[in-house]
């Protein structure tokens, strides 16, 4: 079977990215539009598929699926793919909290290799706001297993 056919087969698969019972879908493109294209913009893609939610306390969560085009170590996610998820999700968490920002500093700890073709959860918290500096913490996990943790310093955009 040619490679292109193998990749197409993956595209056809519907991935269950549904949220927890008390989460409400969050319309991220309505807030930041094309800024999401690099990571979560292709809902049928073979790299990332994602859906964002907010809980009752307005914290941002996401379900992410990483496909074959996000591969680093065999069968597992590339570190850059994990960092890209953190960059988008934690930056978006600041936007969703009302702060128009860019990411100034992102510190990612890779705790366990993240398996491809599994749905994982991203959780985030805006932990502090000091002037233009918004600190957001996040974690990628599935069940009891944490794959990555991150601290993201977001800086509000002057004039926004
Ligand atoms: C846009 C929609 C996004 C939606 C969700 C998707 C999220 C995607 C997130 C991204 O990928 S954003 C793209 C990657 N980030 C960048 O390209 C940012 C590039 N850097 C800049 O544009 C500027 O350096 C920046 C706006 C962050 C800061 O420049 P400024 O000249 O406006 O601010 P300044 O340097 O005066 O710093 C303001 C404060 O922030 C602090 N700061 C700035 N950059 C920092 C840094 N990198 N590390 C630590 N602290 C930093 C700085 O020390 C200072 O603290 P104090 O007020 O306490 O003095």
UniProtKB/TrEMBL annotation:
Query: Listed GO cellular component terms?
Result: cytoplasm; membrane
Q: Which GO terms describe its biological process?
A: fatty acid metabolic process
Catalytic activity reads: hexadecanoyl-CoA + H2O = hexadecanoate + CoA + H(+); octanoyl-CoA + H2O = octanoate + CoA + H(+); (5Z,8Z,11Z,14Z)-eicosatetraenoyl-CoA + H2O = (5Z,8Z,11Z,14Z)-eicosatetraenoate + CoA + H(+); (9Z)-octadecenoyl-CoA + H2O = (9Z)-octadecenoate + CoA + H(+)
Report the top EC class in one word: hydrolase
EC numbers for this chain: 3.1.2.2
Tell me where in or outside the cell this protein is found. Answer: Cell projection, Ruffle membrane; Cytoplasm; Membrane
Tell me which family the UniProt entry assigns to this protein.
Belongs to the THEM4/THEM5 thioesterase family.
Name of protein = Acyl-coenzyme A thioesterase THEM4
Show the InterPro entries listed in the entry: HotDog_dom_sf, THEM4/THEM5_acyl-CoA_thioest, Thioestr_dom
Query: What UniProt keywords are attached to this protein's entry?
Result: Apoptosis, Cell membrane, Cell projection, Cytoplasm, Fatty acid metabolism, Hydrolase, Lipid metabolism, Membrane, Transit peptide
An example Gene Ontology molecular-function term: thiolester hydrolase activity
UniProt keyword Repeat present? no
Q: Which domain of life is it from?
A: Bacteria
């Amino acid at each position: 079977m040619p490679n292109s056919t193998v990749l197409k087969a993956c595209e056809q698969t519907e991935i269950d990215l549904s949220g927890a019972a008390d989460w409400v879908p969050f319309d991220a493109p309505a807030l930041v539009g094309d800024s999401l294209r690099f990571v979560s913009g292709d809902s049928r893609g073979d790299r990332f598929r994602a859906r964002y939610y907010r809980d009752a306390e307005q914290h941002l969560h996401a379900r992410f699926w990483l496909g074959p085009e996000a591969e680093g170590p065999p069968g597992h996610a590339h570190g850059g793919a994990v960092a890209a998820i953190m960059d988008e999700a934690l930056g978006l968490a600041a936007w969703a909290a009302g702060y128009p920002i860019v990411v100034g500093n992102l510190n990612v700890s890779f705790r366990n290799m993240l398996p491809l073709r599994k749905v994982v959860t991203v959780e985030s918290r805006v932990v502090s706001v000091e002037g233009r500096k918004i600190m957001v913490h996040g974690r990628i996990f599935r069940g009891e297993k944490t794959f990555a943790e991150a601290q993201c310093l977001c800086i509000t955009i002057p004039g926004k």
